[in-house]
Amino acid sequence: MSVQSARDFIKQIETDQALKARLEAAADDETRRQIIQTSGFDFTRDEFKQAVVEISTAAGQELSPEELHDIAGGRGKAGWCSKCTCHTYD
């Protein structure tokens, strides 16, 4: 598991509409987690949160306290998939 894998996932999900659609159509968190892992990504929720902060910082976008809370709470405010909760697992 790694932050780099989470970064790679975030970049991939921005451009891979098929992967995004599979994640959005998944019935539950475990199915989404399996899709992520079979797509070659392996990260924890904390690694995902760290990757989101790093990418936002690198892009010159500071996250608001609400956005940080939403990411920490697993509500998907990372901007790539509002229906997806695949990042809410450990």
Explain this structure:
- With 90 residues, this protein is mostly helical.
- It is built from five helices and no strands.
- It has one domain (3-88).
- The protein is 60% helix and 0% strand.
- Helix 1 packs across helix 4 and helix 2 (17-25) packs antiparallel against helix 3 (29-38).
Outline:
With 90 residues, the chain is mainly alpha-helical. It contains five helices and no strands.
Features:
single chain, 90 residues, mainly alpha, 5 helices, 0% strand, globular, disordered C terminus
Shape, principal axes of CA atoms: globular
Helix content, binned percent: 55-70%
Oligomer: single chain
The pLDDT mean sits at 77
Low-confidence stretches: 73-90
Instruction: Tell me the total number of β-strands.
Output: 0
